[in-house]
């Protein structure tokens, strides 16, 4: 038998061409291998990865479930100064310029071109649509004779003839051929749980415009001073000269009954419609509007507590 083993020699496998070698790699009939592995080898690999990814998905799902247990659908986990947006609200304005000028804050229109004017009117129609639909919300409450809504409710904000000429019937002031100017709507950014600290005549700061201080003193006499006040003015002396008379509807700020914001379903932010009655035609006017409360701080660089836009009426 030893002589028989000694007579056995290693025989070199036959040399195959590229195509024949590829076919053998795909399926080797002698060893029953597919792509270099037998059926049992492929089965073990597939079973391993199936178990591996099942465990991975299960672990991820478990961690996600634990994470969601720490969240509340109705209020943010981090509030006030601990949140990303902080506790100093800013102001926003509408209507906004076209999307083609997304970084622009210029409101520019020609009263003699109906198509140009119609864009701004349509933008305000879309913006004010939720205010027309709020009456269908089960959480809305009429607060004409009360200071606060009930728990889980919010006070309605009516866009009615009381804000004329800043309503749809008057085209929001756009397109007036008698020299009138447009209405710009301001709203305070929503911050969950934020409650304003209202100014009184005694606490009004020295940098507050005198006409606003006088207005607060007058309102305080009747107990109507619990308001986040709004004031708009030209940024530069030339802007002050060209801006013309300014009127605020339905009043000069946001009443206390709309605070705090608690994410009640259907809630809409209160608005102040600022009517620029007779801005100088054909002149670019830089305008800054500020919200005034003791816990609102102004920063022109970061636009905290204020908003800037330009107005040009041709």
Automatic annotation (TrEMBL):
It is found in: Cell membrane. GO terms for biological process: intracellular potassium ion homeostasis; intracellular sodium ion homeostasis; potassium ion import across plasma membrane; sodium ion export across plasma membrane. The keyword Disulfide bond applies. It is a single-pass type II membrane protein. GO terms for cellular component: sodium:potassium-exchanging ATPase complex. GO terms for molecular function: ATPase activator activity. Keywords: Cell membrane, Disulfide bond, Glycoprotein, Ion transport, Membrane, Potassium, Potassium transport, Signal-anchor, Sodium, Sodium transport, Sodium/potassium transport, Transmembrane, Transmembrane helix, Transport. The chain crosses the membrane at residues 46-68. It comes from the Eukaryota. Belongs to the X(+)/potassium ATPases subunit beta family. PANTHER family: NA_K-ATPASE BETA SUBUNIT ISOFORM 4-RELATED, SODIUM/POTASSIUM-DEPENDENT ATPASE BETA SUBUNIT. This is the non-catalytic component of the active enzyme, which catalyzes the hydrolysis of ATP coupled with the exchange of Na(+) and K(+) ions across the plasma membrane. The beta subunit regulates, through assembly of alpha/beta heterodimers, the number of sodium pumps transported to the plasma membrane. This is Sodium/potassium-transporting ATPase subunit beta-2-like Protein.
């Amino acid at each position: 038998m030893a002589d028989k083993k000694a007579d056995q020699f290693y025989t070199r496998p036959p040399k195959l061409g590229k195509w024949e070698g590829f076919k053998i790699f795909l399926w080797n009939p002698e060893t029953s291998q597919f792509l270099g592995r037998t059926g049992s080898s492929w089965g073990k690999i597939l079973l391993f990865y199936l178990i591996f990814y099942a465990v991975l998905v299960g672990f991820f799902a478990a961690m996600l479930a634990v994470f969601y247990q720490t969240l509340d659908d109705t209020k943010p986990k981090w509030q006030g100064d601990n949140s990303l947006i902080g506790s100093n609200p800013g102001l926003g304005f509408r209507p906004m310029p076209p999307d083609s000028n997304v970084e622009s804050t210029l409101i520019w229109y020609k009263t003699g071109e109906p198509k140009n004017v119609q864009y701004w009117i349509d933008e305000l129609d879309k913006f004010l649509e939720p205010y027309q639909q709020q009456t269908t919300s089960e959480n809305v409450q009429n607060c004409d004779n009360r200071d606060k809504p009930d728990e889980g409710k919010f006070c309605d904000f009516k866009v009615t003839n009381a804000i004329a000429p800043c309503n749809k019937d008057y085209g929001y002031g756009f397109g007036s051929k008698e020299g009138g100017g447009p209405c710009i709507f301001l709203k305070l950014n929503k911050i969950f749980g934020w409650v304003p600290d209202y100014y009184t005549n005694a606490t009004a700061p020295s940098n507050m415009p005198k006409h606003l201080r006088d207005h607060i003193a007058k309102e305080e006499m009747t107990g109507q001073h619990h308001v986040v006040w709004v004031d708009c003015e030209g940024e530069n002396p030339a802007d002050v000269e060209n801006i013309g008379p300014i009127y605020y509807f339905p009043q000069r700020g946001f009443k206390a009954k709309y605070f705090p914001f608690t994410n009640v379903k259907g809630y809409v932010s209160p608005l102040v419609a600022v009517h620029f009655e007779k801005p100088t035609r054909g002149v670019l006017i830089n305008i800054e509007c500020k919200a005034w409360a003791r816990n609102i701080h102004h920063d022109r660089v970061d636009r905290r507590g204020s908003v800037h836009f330009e107005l040009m009426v041709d």
